[in-house]
Write a sequence for this structure.
């Protein structure tokens, strides 16, 4: 959907209720009641054939008789889900339809077919509805009113929606939007993330997911949204049955570990429980973004403080360290502690009571310590825990703290509070909420809220990391690999054995042990002598993924006598126990060095939702991906591969046991990147399973591999993250004969991008950024180079001559609407290369690219003084419009018109 359509979906001016009723126990009655109770500012049009009025509003029996086209039509009765009703909706010029009633796919299909043909979008079926408090819109069957706020909430479950809204009402947490999508048959989570990403009313997004239909669309939208504001996601189903890799390859099931990896790769923050989602809502409603990771804990009891520290450290957090000045200033008010960490426990009531007389002002002590901590530059975040005390009421202590907080004025320290006990929490929650302080009923939730914000901050930093500059490995064997695969497919050998697969891996510089097949017992001796002892012996059976499961593997065979005896015994035993197996002979392998080596397993499987995914873990035959592996998405660069390895080590999926021969992370990252490149170069590779690959110091050697081919074209492989579009690379010749390579930007181009930006003249920088902009920082460089090829493109022109090779000469940026109906471009050419035709070459490639993406309108903007750009755009068929107020020139090209059409210059 385009941005304009998004605004119409979320902010309808008129709502038609089909199946409206005055009965509150019906869907139509609940919708009418909610619309009227919320005081919707637009027009409400009930449609009913049985009543002339509903809730005092005149009805219409026929949509086609409406004078104005409705923005939103709500269907409340399953009898109205029909092709006939869809035709009436189309004739009424309605743009969006929401189906609240439950409806099976068979009944829904003809209804959707008609609407889709005319571009009418559908929310539902079985949707809870849409709530936008700022405009008084409650077009839903929700059971409670919703307060206005700055959090958007998207859910596929009406039950989760209602539970969340009930909780929020009690806690006085408001929402900018509540979107209950139901079955997501048309408008889905990706659409709504695009809707809300740039919505000014939404400071953060809460997301509840049942399932995702389109992995690429979801990850693209999620990454775009998460780069702008926090996105917190809850998804159930972590422990659905998962026995082995066969399940993950099924056509209908996506393992939870894949969803988890998708959320992380998109920059979202996942919570595991509904209470944690509520805690996230509380934090996002009242907290500030974390400015740092250091947490101090202030408590009036040692026991609660210790519990908080346990939860913090167990989840990867860390305590701040108090400055010497702070320690000295609070010493008189606190229990003695030998530690410098910011765990501060004030003297509790018992320690201040002698002969039934309270010594000292407990509230004053707490206030003085609070002020000292907030003013300590070593502290970024402060968790305050207050246990019930006989010296003061919970409400009074809360009010005192709020007064101290307000007296500080603006502070960068993020405050979290937990007043222990349900009675204390209920008494103080409103006080904290009105002051903009996040308060938690459960201590662990208070700490976890901080941890989740911390993880979100780290995820965002990870997304903005600049990859190290590395020389690309030149793989001369790509064409050889293409020939091998073509030959195997021609011969219909779609399942490769280890010997064949090793030949393919060798084309990408991936080492494997020498492997030879042997059809008969008689031939074993000669092949064994050729390879050399010791050997590994395996049965050759195409039906088995892992021969060891049936006793078909024997290691460390040291001589010919042992080889013959083992082969004969193995053949006899398998023929007796597994007579149906098709034994084609044996496989002999050079025996690899296992001492101190890590046995790893790397699997690539095609997930039904997200396409090809990597699984990384330790070698095992009883593998369960949910338990034993971490997940990564191709394409992998070195940075992403290293992150996957670090994650595997942190989660104990790979154990770095041998400290004197530690796992070579760089070497493993290179191996993963080469496998990723193999997949991208050869879409015929459907799956592979390397089990194991031996990692000994810097040496990596594949021992056993199963590889499956598929006979289809690259267009049929849909990666969750669109790979680098190599087909856009093009060599062009400038007017002076200089050769230039134009290609999409890559993450490793950050250093040359920085050099290009710094080389621009002050005048060109001003034209590029419409003002004076300082040198780009790391986050800006990462955003410019780590782009999502699915919805934006950045073409760079590189010199390919001599000492200037790989210098960026020009940059063209293209930003597409999510539905690709419109695109906006911007071009910058290095100051000393103007008037050589480079700008025109880039413009032609921009136009070609936008045509390939079915873009309808291409727009750009430049300063009025940039006459060369204006002339070029005019010659290429752009319509030019002066905006004298903003002092800019607007350029618009209708992609359906003649590209060489001359245009007249308009003024506004």
């Amino acid at each position: 959907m385009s941005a304009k359509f998004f605004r119409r979906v979320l902010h309808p001016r008129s709502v038609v209720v089909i199946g409206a009723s005055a009965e509150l126990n019906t869907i139509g009655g609940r919708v009418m009641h909610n619309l009227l109770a919320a005081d919707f500012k637009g027009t409400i049009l009930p449609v009913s054939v049985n009543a002339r009025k509903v809730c005092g509003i005149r009805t219409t029996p026929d949509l086609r008789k409406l004078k104005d086209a409705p923005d939103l039509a709500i269907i409340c009765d399953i009898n109205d889900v029909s092709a006939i009703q869809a035709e009436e909706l189309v004739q009424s010029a309605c743009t969006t339809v929401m189906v609240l009633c439950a409806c099976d796919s068979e009944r829904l299909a003809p209804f959707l077919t008609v609407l889709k043909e005319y571009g009418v979008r559908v929310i539902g079926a079985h949707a809870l509805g849409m709530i936008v408090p700022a405009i008084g819109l409650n077009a839903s069957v929700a059971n409670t009113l919703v307060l206005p706020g700055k959090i958007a909430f998207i859910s596929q479950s009406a039950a989760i929606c209602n539970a969340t809204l009930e909780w929020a009402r009690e806690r006085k947490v408001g929402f900018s939007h509540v979107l209950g999508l139901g079955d997501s048959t048309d408008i889905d989570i990706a659409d709504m993330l695009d809707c809300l990403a740039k919505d000014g009313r939404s400071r953060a997004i809460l997301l509840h997911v049942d399932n995702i239909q389109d992995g690429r669309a979801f990850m693209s939208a999620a990454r775009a949204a998460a780069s702008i504001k926090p996105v917190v996601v809850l998804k159930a189903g972590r422990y659905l049955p998962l026995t082995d890799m066969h399940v993950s390859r099924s056509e209908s099931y996506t393992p939870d570990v894949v969803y988890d990896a998708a959320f992380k790769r998109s920059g979202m923050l996942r919570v595991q429980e509904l209470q944690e989602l509520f805690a996230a809502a509380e934090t996002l409603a009242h907290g500030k973004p974390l400015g740092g990771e250091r947490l101090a804990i202030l408590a009036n009891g040692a026991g609660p403080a210790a519990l908080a520290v346990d939860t913090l450290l167990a989840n990867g957090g860390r305590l701040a360290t108090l400055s010497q000045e702070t320690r000295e200033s609070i010493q008189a008010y606190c229990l003695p502690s030998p530690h410098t960490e910011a765990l501060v426990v004030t003297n509790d009531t018992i320690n201040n009571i002698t002969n039934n007389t309270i010594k000292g002002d407990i509230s004053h002590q707490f206030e003085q310590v609070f002020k000292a901590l907030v003013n300590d530059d070593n502290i970024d975040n402060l968790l305050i825990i207050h246990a019930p005390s006989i010296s003061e009421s919970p409400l009074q202590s809360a009010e005192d703290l709020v007064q101290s907080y307000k007296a500080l004025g603006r502070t960068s320290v993020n405050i979290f509070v937990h007043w222990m006990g349900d009675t204390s929490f209920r008494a103080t929650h409103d006080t904290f909420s009105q002051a903009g302080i996040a308060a938690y009923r459960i201590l662990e939730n208070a700490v976890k809220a901080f941890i989740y914000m911390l993880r979100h901050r780290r995820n965002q930093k990870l997304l903005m990391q600049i990859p190290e500059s590395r020389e690309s490995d030149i793989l001369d064997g790509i064409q050889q690999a293409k020939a091998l695969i073509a030959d195997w497919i021609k011969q219909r050998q779609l399942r490769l054995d280890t010997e064949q697969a090793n030949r393919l891996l060798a084309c990408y510089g991936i080492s494997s042990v020498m492997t030879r097949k042997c059809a008969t017992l008689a031939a074993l001796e000669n092949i064994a002598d050729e390879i050399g002892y010791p050997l590994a012996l395996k049965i050759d059976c195409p039906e088995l993924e892992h021969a060891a499961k049936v006793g078909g593997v024997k290691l460390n065979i040291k001589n010919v006598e042992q080889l013959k005896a083992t082969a004969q015994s193995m053949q006899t035993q398998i023929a007796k126990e597994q007579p149906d197996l098709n034994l084609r002979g044996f496989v002999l392998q050079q025996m690899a060095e296992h001492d101190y080596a890590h046995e790893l397993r790397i699997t690539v499987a095609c997930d039904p939702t997200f396409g090809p995914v990597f699984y990384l873990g330790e070698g095992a035959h009883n593998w369960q991906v949910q338990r034993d592996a971490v997940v990564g998405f191709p394409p992998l660069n070195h940075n992403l591969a290293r992150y996957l390895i670090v994650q595997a080590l942190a989660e104990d999926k790979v154990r770095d046991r041998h400290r004197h021969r530690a796992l070579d992370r760089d070497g493993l990252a290179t191996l993963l990147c080469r496998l990723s490149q193999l997949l991208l170069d050869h879409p015929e590779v459907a799956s592979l399973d390397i089990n194991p690959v031996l990692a000994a110091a810097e040496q990596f050697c594949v021992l056993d591999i199963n590889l499956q081919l598929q006979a289809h074209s690259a267009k049929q492989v849909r990666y969750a993250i669109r790979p680098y579009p190599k087909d856009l690379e093009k060599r062009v010749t400038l007017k002076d004969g200089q050769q230039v390579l134009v290609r999409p930007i890559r993450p490793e181009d950050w250093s040359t991008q920085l050099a290009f930006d710094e080389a621009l003249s002050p005048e060109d920088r001003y034209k590029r950024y419409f003002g004076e902009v300082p040198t780009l920082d790391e986050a800006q460089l990462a955003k410019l180079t780590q782009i999502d090829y699915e919805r934006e493109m950045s073409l760079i022109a590189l010199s390919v001559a001599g000492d200037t090779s790989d210098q960026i000469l020009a940059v063209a940026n293209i930003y597409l609407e999510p539905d690709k109906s419109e695109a906006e471009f911007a071009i910058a050419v290095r100051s000393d290369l103007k008037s050589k035709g480079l700008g025109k070459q880039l413009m032609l490639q921009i136009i070609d690219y936008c045509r390939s993406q079915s873009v309808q309108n291409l727009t750009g903007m430049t300063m009025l003084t940039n006459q060369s750009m204006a002339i070029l755009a005019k010659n290429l068929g752009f319509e030019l419009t002066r905006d004298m107020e903003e002092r800019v020139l607007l350029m618009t090209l209708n992609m359906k018109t003649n590209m060489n059409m001359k245009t007249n210059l308009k003024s506004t």
